[in-house]
Amino acid sequence: MQADFWLQRWQAGQIGFHQAQVNRDLRQHWPLLRLEPGARVLVPLCGKSLDMNWLIEQGCYVVGAELSEAAVAGYFNERGVQPQITRKGDFSVYAAPGIEIWCGDFFALTAHDIGHCTAFYDRAALIALPADMRERYVQQLEALMPQACSGLLVTLEYDQNLLEGPPFSVPHTWLQAFVSGSWEITKVSEQDALHSSPKALRAGLERMDEHVYMLERQSR
Ligand SMILES: C[S@@+](CC[C@H](N)C(=O)[O-])C[C@H]1O[C@@H](n2cnc3c(N)ncnc32)[C@H](O)[C@@H]1O
What we know:
Layout: H1 3-11, H2 24-29, E1 40-43, H3 51-57, E2 61-66, H4 69-79, E3 84-88, E4 91-96, E5 99-103, H5 111-114, E6 119-123, H6 131-144, E7 150-158, H7 172-178, E8 183-192, H8 198-202, E9 208-217
Parallel strand pairs: 1-2, 1-6, 2-5, 6-7
Antiparallel strand pairs: 3-4, 4-5, 7-9, 8-9
The structure holds S-adenosylmethionine (SAM).
């Protein structure tokens, strides 16, 4: 998926992925990570997700990364918060108490940029990317995060022959092949996502499952 694809989606207001409420999986499963108060949490490909507000309310410091300026500006506007905007290299960093969002290409971020994030939250980030970019995404996550860290990952699994992404299907076997080398993967929930997806129903899918995983980085 090229940058233009996402920038146009935001420009045209085609943001069906955006949820008007805080994600229920986040609320339910985040405590499993047992983070220290004040933990820095990386939210890759964050859009203008309200989940970031919830993380701030839990006492986390959120470090978001998002390509679209419209999304980032929208996030702060809708919260009624005036961010401080600083230019750092190729990024514009929007900051307010409890949060900074790096507006630019996630793949260009460095560990130095984001600081010591001990956790990440991925909802609709990995599954937004086609397979070749997903491998790069995992490598980038590993480059950005310290050896001791954990995260919550929400994926979808369905028959990719019947429906094009995004969101893409990320089967458990893909995670085993590309993620399990460095991370311990624990599936914490699995539920039907078909009946809340008119697009999937129209495409004739018989199953679409949402999986939530806890990932814990294995020290080598
Ligand atoms: C499917 S949306 C999910 C947004 C958010 N995680 C949510 O749950 O609402 C994917 C987001 O990733 C952003 N994005 C795509 N490629 C990116 C990149 N290379 N760097 C930063 N953001 C990117 C898009 O602009 C879009 O907002």
